[in-house]
Amino acid sequence: MDARATALSAQDQELIDAACEAITRRYRNDWQEVGAALRSRTGQIITGVNLDAYLGRMAVCAEAVALGKLVTDHGETGIDTIVAVRHPRPHEPDQTIRVVSPCGSCRELICDYDPDARVIIMGETGPIAVPIGALLPNKYNRGTGL
Questions:
Q1: For residue 112, which of 72, 137, 140 has the smallest C-alpha distance?
Q2: Number of neighbouring beta carbons within 10 Å of residue 122
Q3: CB atoms < 10 A from the CB of 50, how many?
Q4: In this predicted model, what pLDDT tens digit does every residue of 125-137 receive, in sequence order?
Q5: Which residues contact 109 (CB under 8 A, 6 or more apart)?
């Protein structure tokens, strides 16, 4: 486990519950299967679900949808904590909604908007919270300075 990982707080569990509720309400097999929830720096909880498309490269992750709502609807960019969960497909034997790690693109996006964000991921024994930097070593930087 990353030394910077922390146990979950009640607020962290509240985010997981909000992400689970979002994907439970909006789940559509082969269209929406990931839900996300973030807590802004001002305490707002924002949710989103992934937007799938026939052209895979046109899909938008749930974390990006939640961040877009934060920016558009609330005029904020600060992310205190974010989590994504995946709803199993109907044919999968285990129908438990589980925490999943953000993809590489979402890791970059989260870090671009708040390099101090915490991300809830699955640890060895259950969900843990880590700083986004722990998931994104050697972060891309557009700057020209060394």
A1: 140
A2: 12
A3: 22
A4: 999 999 999 998 8
A5: 63, 64, 67
CB 47 within 8 A of CB 83: no
Chain position carrying tokens 């679900």: 49
SS (H, E, C) the chain: CCCCCECCCHHHHHHHHHHHHHHHHHCECCCECEEEEEEECCCCEEEEECECCCCHHHCECHHHHHHHHHHHHHCCCCEEEEEEEECCCCCCCCCCCEEECCCHHHHHHHHHHCCCCEEEEECCCCEEEEEHHHHCCCCCCCCCCC
Supply 42's token pair. 């001002």
pLDDT (average), residues 27-49: 93
Q: How far apart are alpha carbons 15 and 37 in whole angstroms?
A: 6
Q: What is the pLDDT at residue 145? A: 54
- The verdict on whether 108 is a catalytic residue reads no
User: What does the pLDDT look like over 47-76, one tens digit per residue?
Assistant: 999 998 887 678 899 999 999 999 999 999
| From 21, 33, 63, 92, the catalytic residue | 63
